[in-house]
Fold Ribulose-phosphate 3-epimerase.
Amino acid sequence: MTKIAASILSADFADLKQDCLRLLREGVDLLHFDVMDGHFVPNISYGAPVLESLHAALPDAFYDVHLMISDPARYAPDFARAGAGLITFHLEAVPGAVPRVIETIREAGCRVGLSIRPGTPVEAVFPYLEALDLVLVMSVEPGFGGQAFMPEAVQRLAALDAERRRRNYRTLLEVDGGINAQTGPLCAQAGADWLVAGSALFRAPDPAPVIRLLHGEA
Ligand code: DX5
Ligand code: ZN
């Protein structure tokens, strides 16, 4: 079944544990932890100490860490120690050092994802598919929650899905940005295994129907 990753970027940070717990109890599968450095993207979010506290408060949750930072190899080990289960970095941040960053994250004990911005051709990740646990297709320009879904993401997911099938790989596909009850099912149909949703979950008066639709249940 499609998994739902709740992006805590849209949570109430004064009540982070309760806000996450509420969604986990409603059936969200993973917590998506967006890290922004004000350099790779024009926004700053939060760092490893926040993950460490949240992990201590909710130790059974799976933490899907999305690094939107210029130097992922330098900071990934901090996030691994803080409780990350999987760490995704951006190809555009380290175009010449992708294998080295994959290795660093693996050595830190985490599963590894590689993400691409909307303008990066999907073929750019093909050489690394075998070495990855996951590819994250951005369906907005990274940096902010609450943006509109870019429909091209659907074909991009389908192209990655075709390539992984052709090569018989188990690499997971994740999509992030503007995912809601309408756009999520389209992405799942195109091959997305994990759907990231921030505002559609945390800002919904009742997230239960959104979760059902994203799970493909309603
Ligand atoms: C954007 C982040 C997303 C963001 C998604 O750069 O990577 O995870 O929080 O938020 P929504 O679901 O509101 O588009
Ligand atoms: Zn994200």
Q: What stands out?
A: Residues 3-214 form a domain with the TIM Barrel fold (CATH 3.20.20.70). The chain has a mean pLDDT of 98.
